[in-house]
Design brief:
The two termini are 32 Å apart. Helix content is 72%, strand content 0%. The chain has 15 helices and no strands.
Length: 405
Amino acid sequence: MAESAPNLVPELETRFEPIMVRSEATQPVAKRPVAAVLALGCVALLMLGAQPVILGAWLGAHRLSVPELSYAAMAEMLALGAVSGGMAALLQHRHLWAWSLVGSVGLILANAGCLAANGLGLVACRALAGACGGVIVWIGAGVITRSRSAAQLSAIYLGAQALSQAALAAALPFLAPRLGADAGAWALGLMALVTAPLVLLIPRQLPDLPRPDAGQGALSGVGVSGLLSSALMMAGVVGLWVFVDAIGRADHVSATVGAYAVSASLVMQIAGAAAVATLGGRLAPATTLLVAGLLELLVVGVLAGFKGDLPFVAATLLFGFLWSVVLPMFVPLLIRSDPTRRAAMLLSGAQLLGSSAGPLVTGALASEADVRPVLAVSAVLMAGAVAALLVLLQLERRGAPGRPA
């Protein structure tokens, strides 16, 4: 087992027990290190909430073409998912000070590189930012999956991400007149620089996860089913989300109403995260995810079958709320289904890879003249996620580890 991690705060164990990370051989990670890890994670994921604005500014300045904009968005999310997932599969949580320093410094340099880059150079810089962010996301996933209240902590993390991304989106219009198309890169780089000292609060290591029983692989069938469901769900959600505004315009929703609906959906994401943070310990993960998946299909049905401002706004608001419910509830589901927590450690990577692939899949049959095929493809992906959840439950009933849903 790992040696005790230094510079933690064991005397806070009782007071902050719900968000402690426990191990027989390691002292609990107290509130301050947990907050530092989550803050760094929010900075690593800031770009995802502001991609349309930041990449759109470079497009408007003719520093990216339309295909290059798509490459930049995809490259960053793929790098985030591949690095965080790859590190979760291959590495123990050791030398976290060094890894977090690499991630923070890399984010600073990648965003600084964007200031002078054009075209494929910008694509490369965003891919580097994604890879460095993936290192930090891996550390955050390690803290969350070792928590006794994983769903609540994951929901707090998600809510903090939504708030920080909203703050960045609100600030960019005020920065753009002075900083031009590079306002986003300046803001991202400055946030990475300001939060870099938080590396000093990161624990050096986390306790090792339990090893699989003899004769079992590192990942069980239930774990694979849960990860597949998560990836499909996020592919459907993000694949629909990036086209929501275009779908509204096609249904003659006014630009003002569309902008309001998107902004209000972000508020509903925060509300969903708050609901899970409050109730997560009392919610059955599988049941909650199944209900949320069916409601997401209802959202697609409303967007496909009803036109006008009211149905569009209602569907978009519900969609935002469900998004923040689905993301954190996969954590306790995978922990329950795979007590080694190895599947849960791979969750962030699976969700990011699904998110990056979603728009490519849903947009494959769409065109500028008709974006409505996005709805059908999104529905297929979401239905696939629900089916994978049902497979997981069936495998559990046949004797896989875990408690009833």
